[in-house]
């Protein structure tokens, strides 16, 4: 949670913090979890019903 009083201060601090992230050392969640490389398309999901299948 940010305590910045205005958007400019928020983004200045955000940019500083984001600069600390080492892009070459980060791993995407999909790569870390090891699922298929390509997420399923909307056509592959069936009827398009947004209800969760349990």
List keywords for this structure.
54 residues; mainly alpha; 0% strand; elongated
How would you describe what is shown here?
The chain has helices at 7-19, 29-33. It is mostly helical and 54 residues long. It is built from 2 helices and no strands. 0% of the residues are buried.
The parts where pLDDT drops under 50 for at least 5 residues are: none
Give me the secondary-structure category.
Answer: mainly alpha
Oligomer: single chain
Average per-residue pLDDT, rounded, comes to 73
Largest sheet: none
Number of helices: 2
The end-to-end span amounts to: 33 Å
Run of helices and strands:
HH
Strand content: under 5%
CA radius of gyration is: 19 Å
Shape: elongated
Number of strands: 0
Task: Give the helix proportion (percent range).
Answer: 25-40%
Q: Which secondary structure elements does this structure contain, and how are they paired or packed?
A:
Layout: H1 7-19, H2 29-33
Describe this structure in a few short sentences.
This protein has two helices and no strands. With 54 residues, the protein is mostly helical. The model has no long low-confidence stretch (mean pLDDT 73).
């Amino acid at each position: 949670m940010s305590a910045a009083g205005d958007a400019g201060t928020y983004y200045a601090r955000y940019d500083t913090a984001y600069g600390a992230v080492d892009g070459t050392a980060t791993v995407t969640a999909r790569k870390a979890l090891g699922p298929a490389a390509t997420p399923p398309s909307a056509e592959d999901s069936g009827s398009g019903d947004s209800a969760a299948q349990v």
